[in-house]
């Protein structure tokens, strides 16, 4: 993921029980800086982004982050990660692309 990238967060609203999408600009944090900020080690399959100052409403772990890409002249949502937790204004995300081989051999 680039250091600054527009991602789309797909999340559930606790109050309305609906699925919604929201484009948000995230700033990636280095693994070392992230570990210091959340005061615990980061797993190799995780990355961190700073929690946006406004306009981002996070309700449940498991919300997904991704981006829209044009593939074969069709706009598709490309899943990049699932939110694990938020701590000290840092969003810790599991990088689902690190599981590509497992997904291809196990799920497909």
Automatic annotation (TrEMBL):
Name of the featured protein: Peptidase S1 domain-containing protein
Organism: Drosophila erecta
This protein's encoding gene: Dere\GG26694
């Amino acid at each position: 993921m680039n250091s600054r990238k527009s991602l789309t967060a797909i999340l559930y609203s606790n109050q309305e029980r609906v699925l919604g999408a929201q484009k948000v600009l995230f700033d990636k944090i280095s693994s070392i800086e992230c570990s210091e900020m959340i005061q615990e080690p980061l797993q190799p399959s995780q990355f961190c982004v700073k929690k946006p100052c406004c306009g981002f409403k996070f309700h449940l772990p498991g919300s997904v982050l991704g981006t829209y890409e044009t593939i074969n002249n069709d706009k598709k949502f490309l899943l990049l990660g699932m939110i694990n937790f938020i701590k000290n204004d840092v969003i810790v995300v599991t990088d689902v692309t690190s599981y590509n081989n497992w997904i291809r051999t196990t799920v497909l």
